[in-house]
């Protein structure tokens, strides 16, 4: 069967006000929009037939006039005694995407979500980057990852990190709409400070985000302290070099009053020497105390030759940064044995990657 494009508007992804207008367009009172929002965002309804407090006739008209995009769970794998669960979802037009649920001892329940199928940024160490960009996700497809995970686990999600597949700021509109929905009291009601966007460093979009004055948490993937090295492993550095990126980050901090974290994936012999740690410390010394660095030992990816540094090398790198007065953490590893790093479940379980697996196993 050839999949025809569904021309009906998608109600998932609409705000309360938009849903109220939609109800009115169909000749119903505005409060029906609030009922629909409750079913879609809080009850995780996948069909209008489930919305039992709506009149039967209205449900039928809704089904003719609109749709509710819902992700289909293909598979899941668990690690950390069930406290990390990685889900692979299938989209209506066929491709797959992944989301990771993490349960923490302090009570937090976090989901790592994707914003694109694949990614066009081409970072040389990243599984998602290897595959290139297939397409952007819609806000329905982004927000539904959190709704589905809540539904599947039966637990309320307290934190969301945009660190799965894709570059969130390359899919700016749907990402921002999702941020508002996740935060909205009629939807998942997650505190703005508990929402984290990670970006590869798209300078114009960082500036644009600063103007939204949101209290979300911004993480910037730096990975190298010199343009020479960053040009090689993060190709968009050729477009927006480090000095421009840091200038945009300073503006961001000035406008939002929120601190930025820099992510730094450590790869042995590439960017993990203590000399580079010292250079990074120098780069981030001004102004003192403004920046935070999050060190992430590289997670192995099929087909890539990088190596994850030994713990001692990671510690030495962290020590050198701290000596320079830079607040530094080493990211707590979750789900390493199930490839919970970005983009990896799809390569090991996604049907469209069967060829890659065969080659890797050959
Ligand atoms: N595109 C965005 C967000 C998704 S990637 C970004 O690049 O920031 C989220 C984080 O995972 C980034 O810091 C990215 O560099 C890192 N990452 C990618 N591949 C990785 C791997 N194999 N091991 C460890 N971290 C990885
Ligand atoms: Fe894309 Fe981020 Fe992977 Fe780079 S690290 S290829 S920006 S997902």
Present the secondary structure layout:
Elements: H1 16-25, H2 31-42, H3 56-65, E1 72-79, E2 84-90, E3 96-103, E4 109-112, E5 116-118, H4 127-131, E6 133-136, H5 139-153, E7 159-162, H6 172-183, E8 195-199, H7 203-210, E9 217-221, H8 227-233, H9 242-256, E10 260-266, H10 274-283, E11 291-297, H11 311-323, E12 327-330, H12 344-349, H13 354-361
Parallel strand pairs: 4-7, 7-8, 8-9, 9-10, 10-11, 11-12
Antiparallel strand pairs: 1-2, 2-3, 3-4, 5-6
Helix pairs in contact: 1-2, 5-6, 7-9, 10-11
Bound molecules: S-adenosyl-L-homocysteine and iron/sulfur cluster.
Question: How would you describe what is shown here?
Answer:
It is a single chain. α10 links the parallel β10 (260-266) and β11 (291-297). With 362 residues, the protein is α/β, with parallel strands linked by helices. The chain folds into 2 domains: 16-65, DNA polymerase, domain 1 (Orthogonal Bundle); 72-360, Aldolase class I (TIM Barrel, Alpha-Beta Barrel), CATH 3.20.20. It has a 10-stranded mixed sheet. A two-stranded antiparallel sheet has the order 5-6. The chain is built from 13 helices and 12 strands. α1 packs across α2 (31-42) and α5 runs parallel beside α6 (172-183). It has helices at 16-25, 31-42, 56-65, 127-131, 139-153, 172-183, 203-210, 227-233, 242-256, 274-283, 311-323, 344-349, 354-361, and strands at residues 72-79, 84-90, 96-103, 109-112, 116-118, 133-136, 159-162, 195-199, 217-221, 260-266, 291-297, 327-330. Helix content is 36%, strand content 18%. The structure holds S-adenosyl-L-homocysteine and iron/sulfur cluster (SF4). S-adenosyl-L-homocysteine is lined by residues 123, 125-126, 163, 167, 198-200, 221, 263, 265, 296, 298-299, 301, 341-342.
């Amino acid at each position: 069967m050839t999949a025809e494009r569904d021309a009906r508007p998608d109600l998932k992804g609409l705000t309360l006000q938009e849903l109220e207008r939609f109800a009115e367009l169909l000749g119903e009172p505005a409060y029906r929009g609030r009922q629909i929002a409750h079913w879609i965002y809080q009850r995780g309804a996948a069909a209008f037939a489930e919305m039992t407090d709506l009149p039967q006739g209205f449900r039928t008209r809704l089904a003719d006039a609109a749709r509710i995009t819902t992700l289909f769970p293909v598979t899941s794998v668990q690690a950390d005694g069930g406290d990390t669960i990685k889900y692979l979802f299938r989209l209506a037009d066929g491709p797959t995407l992944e989301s990771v649920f993490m349960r923490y001892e302090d009570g937090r329940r976090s989901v790592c979500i994707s914003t694109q199928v694949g990614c066009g940024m081409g970072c040389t160490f990243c599984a998602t980057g290897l595959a290139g960009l297939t397409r952007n996700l819609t806000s329905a497809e982004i927000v539904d990852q959190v709704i589905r995970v809540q539904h599947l686990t039966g637990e309320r999600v307290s934190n969301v990190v945009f660190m799965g597949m894709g570059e969130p700021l390359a899919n700016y509109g749907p990402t921002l709409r999702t941020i508002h929905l996740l935060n909205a009291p009629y939807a998942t009601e997650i505190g703005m400070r508990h929402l984290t966007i990670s970006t590869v460093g798209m300078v114009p979009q960082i500036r644009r985000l600063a103007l939204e004055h949101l209290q979300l948490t911004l993480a910037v993937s730096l990975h190298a302290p010199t343009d020479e090295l960053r040009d090689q492993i993060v190709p968009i550095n050729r477009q927006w070099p480090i000095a421009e990126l840091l200038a945009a980050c300073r503006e961001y901090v000035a406008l939002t009053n929120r601190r930025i974290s820099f992510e730094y994936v450590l790869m042995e012999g590439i960017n993990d020497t203590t000399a580079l740690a010292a250079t990074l410390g120098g780069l981030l010394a001004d102004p003192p105390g403004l920046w935070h660095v999050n060190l992430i030992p590289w997670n192995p990816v099929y087909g890539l030759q990088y190596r994850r540094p030994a713990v001692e090398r990671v510690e030495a790198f962290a020590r050198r940064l701290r000596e320079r007065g830079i607040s530094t953490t080493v990211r707590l590893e979750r789900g390493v044995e199930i490839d919970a790093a970005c983009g990896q479940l799809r390569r090991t379980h996604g049907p469209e990657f069967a060829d890659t697996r065969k080659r890797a196993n050959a």
